[in-house]
Write a structure and sequence with these properties.
0% strand, 68 residues
Length: 68
């Protein structure tokens, strides 16, 4: 059962990425809406990772390059 859920999530992620590419090339309105939702979901995930890293005291991909 969990396999089907993971496959479904993977299909949705790939379809969302396809919509982002299609919307960048001027797709129909529904494609632009799906692309906006996909990009917003990515921002939410990244923000959650940043908050989690701040709570744990780590720097998760902050881009500063200070790994020493």
């Amino acid at each position: 059962m969990i396999l089907y859920v993971l496959i479904g999530v993977l299909v949705l992620a790939v379809a969302g990425c396809g919509c982002v590419v299609w919307a960048a090339r001027g797709g129909p309105r529904w494609v632009r809406a799906v692309a906006a939702v996909t990009l917003l979901g990515g921002e939410v995930v990244r923000d959650g990772q940043r908050r989690s890293a701040r709570r744990s005291g780590g720097a998760l991909g902050d881009g500063t390059g200070d790994s020493d």
